[in-house]
Design brief:
By secondary structure, this protein is an all-alpha fold. It is 56% helix and 0% strand.
């Protein structure tokens, strides 16, 4: 638990520094691993074949939408309740995903 708390502190530090320091933000976008390690002293260990991409979404005049990776069922660990939801049609899984990923976007869609 303590280790996760430290990770949260590292993430907060990265984001707050990016908000305050435009040079850090530029470095974070161009070379995120070096920028994060230099700022925090934390090591970034990416799985083989993975790349860390940082997008600047600080422009308040824009609403951003990221297209997430399509989940692979084999990679997802589901509890019994989640398995039952999926077996029964699973629409709440999509609702949770959309609400978590696009909270601002959801608010501007009118049907």
């Amino acid at each position: 638990m303590g280790q996760n708390k430290n990770k949260e502190e590292v993430l907060r530090l990265i984001i707050s520094k990016a908000w305050e320091d435009i040079d850090f933000r530029k470095n974070l976008i161009s070379d995120p691993i070096i920028a994060i390690e230099n700022l925090t002293g934390a090591k970034i260990i990416l799985p083989e074949g993975k790349t860390l991409v940082v997008n600047d979404q600080t422009d308040k005049s824009k609403v951003y939408m990221n297209i997430p990776v399509e989940p692979s069922i084999e990679d997802i660990e589901l509890n019994e309740e989640q398995l039952e939801i999926i077996a029964g049609g699973g629409q709440t899984v999509w609702a949770d995903l959309v609400n978590n990923l696009f909270p601002e976007l959801k608010d501007i869609i009118k049907i």
